[in-house]
Amino acid sequence: MLQIHSNPETMGAAAAAHGAAKIIAAIEKQGYANIIVATGASQFTMLSALAATPGIDWGKVTMFHLDEYVGLPETHPASFRKYIKERFIAQLPKPLKAAYFVNGSDPDPAKTCEELGKIIAEHPIDVCFIGIGENGHIAFNDPPADFDTEAAYLVVDLDEACRKQQLGEGWFPTLDDVPKQAISMGVRQILKSKAIVNTVPDARKAYAMKITFEEEMSPAHPASVIRIHPDCATFCDVPAAAQLSKLTRDLCTK
Question: Under CATH, what is the fold of the domain 2-250?
Answer without folding.
Answer: Rossmann fold (3.40.50)
